[in-house]
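We emphasize that the prediction below concerns an isolated chain of 210 residues; any contacts that depend on oligomerization or on bound cofactors are therefore not represented. The input was used exactly as deposited, without trimming of termini.
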Amino acid sequence: MPADFSRIARPYRWMEYLSFGTLLESCRFYRLPDLRNARRALVFGDGDGRFLSRLLAINPDLRADVVDSSQAMLNLLAARVKKIGAEDRVTLYCIDALKFVPTGGYDLVVTHFFLDCLETAEVEALAQQMRKAVLKNAVWVVSDFAVPSNAARLPARMLICCLYLAFRLLTRLRTSKLPDHATALATAGFRRIKTERWLAGILVSELWIA
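Result of the prediction step, given as a C-alpha cell string:
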C-alpha cells in the first residue's frame, strides 16, 4: 500500500521540532531570498505549508501548483495560505507525484524533504518529467537528508535508518534508503549551483538550474 501521511499531518510539526528543533525549518527557508522573482511554482509535498506561505508572502506575483497525496496535509496548507489571503494564487492537487501531469511553464520546482520518500528510479522519472515542464533557467530547490563523507557518516546512517523505520511504522513508507537524487537531476538536465549544509552535513539545501 502507498504511504499515507494523513495520520501524522497535525502532529508532524511538533514531531519535527522535538526531533530536530528548528533545523529542518532553517533548511526549508534558506533559499527564500533566491526565489523572490519566481512567477510559477510547482511544489511537491510541502506538508502543512510553512514554506509556501512564507514564499507567497514575500513574492506577491507568484502562483503555485501544490501536489501532495495527503488530503489532510493539503487541508493544513490551504488553511495556512488562507490566513495570508493568498488562496487564490494556489491550486491544490491531491495525487501521487508520479501520477501528476504538469501543465508546464514553471520557473520554480520545490521539493523539501520529499525526494527521500522516493526510490532512485522514481526520482529519475520525476526529474525527466520536470525537465519537460520547466522553462529555461528554471530553478529546483531541494532540501533533504544526506550521508556526509566526514566523521558524521556513521551517525548519519544510523539516524536516517531510524527515521525510515519510524516513517514505515507511521505511514507505511516503502522507501528504506536515500535515493541518488543528484545523479537523477543531473542526468535530466539540471545543474547544481548552490549547496548549504547543517548538522555536520546531514541536512542539505541545494539549488539546481535547468
